[in-house]
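User: Please fill in residues for this 729-position structure.
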């Protein structure tokens, strides 16, 4: 096999780590730019995916317009529920014991509050407050109250829940996942979440859960359904008069619940309903549990949540200056009203509106309570409202330590998902011959395209490149360039052209930054160029990080971009694969390049992209991965992950892992420098060999031992891959 000349690996590894650190620090310079949401909404990356989304939404509108009967609407609802259940991984098959226990009672004016804990799954504890009226006769009608994304969780419900109870409606307010006393990444030493705010908790958990083919929303929906189970189990609650309310993130959960649980007799969804055509042009997708992969490209939009609940009484509750656009809510309500009309239940859909920004509900508490009084108590009386000061937090909390994880250790989303992953072992084909490897490669290519959404075919594109400034270096010319990405972005890049004439080996260099320090003297581009390679270092999309600060520092700078891609059936990995293959097309066409000697170098998240691209493109003859994830399964096994959001491929572990890509790349060489696990920690040689045992077994069967090398980083690392035999299989 022809071998590309390569610089010392340990020097390259150290520099990549330094340059990536500097690149991330430089993101702070872009903060003023990210603050302008109007400008960022027009970024070409967003616009490209928005264009894709709008095409699907236009087709959806045509399909909805064709619904003319209740039977039509019910058939569409059945399709909607089938899709959602498949997309989130279904729901648990068994309603396990709730094991409720009341841990205390708080006596208040006109109502009392029971502090309790119950389980939605065995060992998965939910702290909750049950507000019970003191007046009237039991059994009482009741509301399941899902708080929004507030760190205090159920304590947020105090004002509305206390007034509900004083008006004769019981309220069960519980801590959603990642809020209140139910943090999933609680650090007892720091007494706070490792993932930051609730949106960070949800999105961090969403990364790991997506890899197994499930979706974090299944756990939110199941929690809500078990809340209904608990209410229905009580003799002082009327199981035939149960409704649900939630605002913001709680509104999303309530919308999910109303679409799937027919026990609900009324639903109030606040500050969540809008339309994707409005949302994607403004703040865009916000976090994991509200971003179901494939939702838009399968033909669905916000009003489908309302319509799936028909003809149940439903209140869409909106504030005029909400970040979830008000006009989007108007559009969705208007559509849903027509569908409710097909059920002859047009009066069952109300739109309650009020002034102010997101979650500013106090001015319309009377209207919200009045809706539930009409639907659950058949009362047209105006509700009475009293402003009651909330008690100290510890009087409503259900644990002595403030967290179930320390007072009542049990399951977390991490442990539940890890257990689920252990039961999802993809079919591992035996590789014994060249025929086996050819069949296996075809299988892997099919799954990569299906899961990532990658579409580029090697040799089928023509990259549009514009050259800029150039400078003379020792042995090569360095040129800046720009090229058009598959997302429509005008991206930057650099190319190092050897000074000597003739055809040269080429290297595609993929790093998290393709500008600045990456090209300085002694950097990876410089090292590759000085050893005779023509080097192309393109920037891959998106060109800029998420417009807002990360939901959690654990997520990295492209988590929202990844969600935006997923809801239209794409992935950030897949979009980057397409650009990488187009870059190889361009390299192969250049007269200075020997197309039989093209190698690929990828660091960090871009190493995952390179490995996928190499599985699809045999022209990448050698592959080097630096500081790259050793396996997706290691991410599921890590209590926390770091900077993995941009590399999420929903359902990947049901079909393949990174070792399968390495096998599919056979007989091409693969070098792994300073591999990391899902938590970003270095992988030692023993663990690395275990993770890649299937690769080494296949290589031995195919008589190519040493093809895949594990190369330790740092000053003690080998100076050339040929010296890494002791780290190989």
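Assistant: Residues filled in for all 729 positions:
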């Amino acid at each position: 096999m022809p071998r590309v000349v390569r610089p010392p690996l340990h020097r390259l590894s150290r520099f990549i780590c330094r340059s990536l650190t500097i690149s991330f620090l430089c993101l702070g310079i872009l903060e003023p730019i990210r603050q302008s949401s109007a400008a960022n909404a027009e970024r070409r990356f967003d616009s490209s995916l928005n264009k894709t989304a709008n095409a699907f939404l236009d087709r959806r509108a045509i399909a909805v317009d064709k619904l003319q009967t209740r039977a039509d609407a019910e058939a569409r609802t059945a399709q909607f529920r089938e899709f959602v259940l498949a997309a989130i991984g279904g729901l648990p098959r068994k309603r396990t014991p709730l094991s409720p226990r009341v841990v205390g009672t708080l006596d208040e004016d006109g109502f009392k509050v029971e502090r309790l804990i119950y389980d939605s799954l065995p060992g998965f504890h939910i702290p909750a407050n049950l507000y019970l009226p003191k007046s009237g006769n039991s059994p009482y009608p009741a509301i399941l109250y899902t708080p929004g994304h507030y760190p205090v969780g159920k304590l947020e419900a105090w004002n509305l829940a206390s007034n509900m109870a004083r008006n004769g409606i019981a309220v069960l307010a519980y801590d959603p996942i990642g809020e209140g006393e139910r943090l999933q990444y609680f650090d007892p030493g720091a007494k706070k979440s490792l993932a930051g705010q609730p949106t960070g908790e949800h999105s961090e958990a969403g990364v790991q859960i997506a890899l197994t083919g499930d979706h974090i929303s299944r756990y939110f929906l199941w929690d809500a359904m078990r809340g209904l189970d608990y209410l229905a189990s009580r003799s002082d609650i009327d199981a035939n008069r149960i409704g649900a309310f939630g605002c913001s993130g709680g509104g999303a959960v309530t919308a999910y619940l109303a679409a799937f649980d027919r026990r609900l007799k009324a639903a109030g969804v606040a500050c969540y309903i809008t339309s994707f055509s409005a949302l994607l042009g403004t703040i865009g997708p916000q976090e994991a549990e509200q971003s179901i992969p494939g939702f838009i490209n399968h033909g669905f939009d916000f009003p489908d949540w309302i319509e799936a609940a028909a003809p149940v009484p439903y209140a869409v509750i909106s504030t005029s200056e909400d970040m979830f656009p008000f006009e989007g809510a108007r559009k969705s309500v208007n559509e849903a009203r027509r569908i409710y009309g097909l059920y002859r239940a047009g009066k069952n859909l109300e739109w309650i509106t009020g002034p102010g920004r997101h979650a500013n509900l106090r001015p319309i508490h009377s209207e919200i309570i009045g809706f539930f009084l009409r639907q659950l108590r058949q009362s047209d009386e105006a509700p009475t409202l009293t402003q009651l000061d909330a008690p100290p937090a510890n009087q409503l909390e259900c644990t002595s330590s403030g967290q179930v994880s320390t007072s009542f250790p049990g399951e977390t989303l991490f442990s539940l998902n890890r257990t689920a992953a252990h039961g999802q072992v993809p079919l591992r084909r035996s590789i014994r011959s060249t025929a086996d490897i050819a069949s296996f490669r075809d299988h892997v290519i099919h799954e990569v395209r299906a899961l990532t959404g990658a579409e580029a075919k090697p040799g089928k594109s023509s990259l549009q490149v514009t050259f800029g400034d150039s400078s003379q270096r020792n042995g090569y010319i360095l040129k800046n360039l720009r090229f058009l990405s598959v997302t429509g972005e005008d991206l930057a890049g650099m190319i190092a052209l050897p000074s000597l004439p003739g055809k040269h080996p080429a290297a595609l260099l993929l790093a998290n930054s393709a500008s600045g320090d990456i090209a300085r003297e002694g950097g990876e581009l410089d090292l590759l160029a000085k050893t005779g390679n023509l080097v192309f270092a393109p920037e891959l999309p998106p060109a800029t990080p998420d417009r807002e600060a990360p939901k959690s520092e654990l997520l990295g700078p492209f988590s929202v971009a990844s969600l935006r891609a997923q809801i239209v059936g794409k992935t950030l990995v897949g979009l980057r694969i397409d650009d990488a293959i187009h870059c190889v097309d361009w390299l192969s066409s250049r007269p200075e390049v020997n197309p039989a000697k093209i190698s690929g170098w990828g660091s960090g998240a871009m190493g995952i992209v390179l490995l996928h691209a190499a599985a699809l493109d045999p022209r990448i003859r050698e592959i080097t991965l630096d500081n790259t994830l050793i396996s997706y399964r290691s991410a599921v096994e890590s209590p926390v992950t770091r900077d993995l959001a941009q590399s999420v491929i929903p359902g990947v572990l049901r079909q393949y892992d990174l070792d399968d890509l390495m096998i599919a790349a056979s007989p091409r060489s693969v070098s792994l420098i300073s591999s990391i696990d899902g938590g970003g920690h270095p992988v030692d040689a023993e663990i690395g060999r275990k993770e890649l045992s299937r690769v080494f077994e296949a290589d031995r069967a195919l008589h190519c031992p040493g093809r895949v090398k594990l190369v330790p980083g740092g000053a003690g690392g080998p100076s050339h891959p040929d010296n890494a035999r002791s780290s190989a299989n």
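For context: The first strand starts at residue 101 and ends at 108.
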